[in-house]
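Inputs:
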Amino acid sequence: MMKPYIQLKNITYCYPNNSHLAINNISMTIYTHQFISILGPNGSGKSTLAKILNGLLFCDEGVVIVDAIQLPEEREQIWEVRKLVGMVFQNPDNQLIANTVEEDVAFGLENQGISIDKMRIRIDEALDKVGLTSYKTVEPHHLSGGQKQKVAIAGIIAMKPKVIILDEATSMLDPKGRKEVLQTVKQLNENENITIIQITHDMQETLLSDRIIVMNNGELLLDGPPKKVLSKRELLHSIGLDVPLASELADRLREKGFPFSEDIVTEEELVRELWTFL
Ligand SMILES: Nc1ncnc2c1ncn2[C@@H]1O[C@H](COP(=O)(O)OP(=O)(O)OP(=O)(O)O)[C@@H](O)[C@H]1O
Ligand SMILES: [Mg+2]
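Outputs:
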C-alpha cells in the first residue's frame, strides 16, 4: 500500500546570487515504497529539488511536507527530516571520512543518544543490507567506487530512513560498481520499503523505476510511469534527452514499416515483438 509521504505544494527556489528561478512552482506527491527516477538536462533543477526534499535548502515560496513535518515553518525539526530522507552524492571519495567502514557507518548515529550496543546492531544490520559485512574493519580508501557508495548507503540505512535520494550516485562508477549500487537500492526498495529517488542521466537506469519525473528549466515537464514518459520521444529529444536504446530502435524500425508497439522500452520487449515479425 502506497501512502503519501512527501508533499510539495507550489514550491519555488532562487539561489541568492542568481537571477532566474532554479525551481519554478513545482507541486507533487511522493509515496511510500516508490522507485522514482528524475531526469532532466544540466541545470534543470534536479539537485536543487533533491536538496529541498531533505531540508538542505528551504524553498522560498510554497511548502514541503515530509512525514507531517512542514518546511520551512517547522525548521527546528530539520534534523529529523534529514534522518528520514538520506542523500547519496556523486563522488564516492567525498563521502567517507572515517578510518574504517564501520566507523563511517556509525558517524551519523553518534550524537543521537543511542547506546553503544544498539549502535553496533544498527551498523551490523546496515552493512548486511548492502552486502559489506566482511568489510567492517577495512579502510574506506581500499574500497572500489561502488563499495564506497554502498558504505555511504549503509550510513544512511543505519539512521532508519524512509527515503533515499541518489544524486547521480552511480555516474562516476564503472559498470560493475553501477550494477552493485543499483541492485542494492532496488533491494532496499523491495525488501525494506524504502522510497528511492534517483537522479540520473542514464536512460537504462530509469527502467528500474515505477515513476519518472522529467524536469526542464526548474519546472516539472513530465511525471508518470516509465512507459508513458519514455514514449514522449520528441518532447524528450527537444530538451536534449535520449530515450532508451530499445525505444529508439523500435522507433526507427516502425518508420521502416515494422508495426512495433509505441510503449517498448526494454530490450526484452523489443526482441519479443521482433520474433512475431519473422
Ligand atoms: N550554488 C548555486 N548558486 C547559484 N546558482 C546555482 C547554484 N547551484 C545551482 N545553481 C543554478 O540553479 C539551477 C539548477 O541547478 P541544479 O544544480 O539544481 O541543476 P541540475 O539539474 O542538478 O543540473 P546537473 O544535471 O548539471 O547536475 C541552474 O541554473 C544552476 O546554474
Ligand atoms: Mg545536479
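Remarks. The two ends are 42 Å apart (CA to CA). The mean pLDDT is 94.
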